[in-house]
Automatic annotation (TrEMBL):
<feature type="transmembrane region" description="Helical">
    <location>
        <begin position="163"/>
        <end position="184"/>
    </location>
</feature>
<feature type="domain" description="ABC transmembrane type-1">
    <location>
        <begin position="72"/>
        <end position="286"/>
    </location>
</feature>
<keyword id="KW-0813">Transport</keyword>
<protein>
    <submittedName>
        <fullName>Sugar ABC transporter permease</fullName>
    </submittedName>
</protein>
<feature type="transmembrane region" description="Helical">
    <location>
        <begin position="12"/>
        <end position="39"/>
    </location>
</feature>
<keyword id="KW-0812">Transmembrane</keyword>
<feature type="transmembrane region" description="Helical">
    <location>
        <begin position="109"/>
        <end position="130"/>
    </location>
</feature>
<keyword id="KW-1133">Transmembrane helix</keyword>
<dbReference type="InterPro" id="IPR051393">
    <property type="entry name" value="ABC_transporter_permease"/>
</dbReference>
<keyword id="KW-1003">Cell membrane</keyword>
<dbReference type="Pfam" id="PF00528">
    <property type="entry name" value="BPD_transp_1"/>
</dbReference>
<feature type="transmembrane region" description="Helical">
    <location>
        <begin position="77"/>
        <end position="97"/>
    </location>
</feature>
<keyword id="KW-0472">Membrane</keyword>
<dbReference type="InterPro" id="IPR035906">
    <property type="entry name" value="MetI-like_sf"/>
</dbReference>
<feature type="transmembrane region" description="Helical">
    <location>
        <begin position="205"/>
        <end position="230"/>
    </location>
</feature>
<comment type="similarity">
    <text>Belongs to the binding-protein-dependent transport system permease family.</text>
</comment>
<dbReference type="InterPro" id="IPR000515">
    <property type="entry name" value="MetI-like"/>
</dbReference>
Amino acid sequence: MIKTLSYKHQRTIIIVAFLILPLALLSVFSLYPAIYLFYMSMMTWDGYSPEKTWAGFSNFNELFHNKEILSVFLHNFVYLLWGLLQNALGLCFALLLNSKLRGRNVYRVILFMPYIMNGVAVAYMFNYVFNSEYGSLNTLLHAVGLDDWAISWFGSVKFVNHVLGFITLWKFMGFNMVIYLAALQSIPSDIIEASRIDGASRLQIIWHIILPNMVRVIELNLFLTIIGALEVFDLPFLLTKGGPLGASDTYVTKTVDTAFSFNNFGLASAMSVSLIVAVIVILGVQRAVIRRWEK
């Protein structure tokens, strides 16, 4: 029967047939949860009672007037700073390992290995490194006579977020390096060789040729870094439980506590919706900045 149809109709039927399953899965696992999340943000619900009470925008009003919730964004900002450093180091290592360096494949594997490690394993490994009593870092500091530097790293309000940010840098820098390395290898070597013949220095080649050809990849990595900084959960949850005194709480850990510790699923849903909106806004701003840089 399908053979009697025109090529245009056959093509349309085939495209629709291939799209039905992906669109169905997208609707069930992405679109429906997002709509239901927005619906829940308009409700007051403790997670147990069968009935939900309509609250309108009161959850959002409470969210934006709660300084304790909004202040945790400052903790996420620390992760963003470490994430930007992570991108810079990833790019530097990519530039270095894209050259004719002996053993470069071994170095690539070593730098990428932390990314493929399980997050829980990484958390427990660094728990032994930064432990105040028997941690390897404090043991090393005592051994070299820097006793005053040996502190309770996870118990310090001043340093705890920087310690956690350093762990994220250690884990994800290799991923950024591999992405940048792939982008570097896609740049035609003829352009670089021509610029060298014209007398361009290494720095000029990087700034005027390599980086402009990597704008899209840089944009992608920065977007992933920003999203990762906003959605940090596993490390503070596993290592500090938000302590000391809530100093390492992040927006997501605060959202989870609001829902499952304080049984306020309406406010937690409003926090999740606000995070989605923040991500969309940040993506728009980043896109505008990148376009301006391209021009």
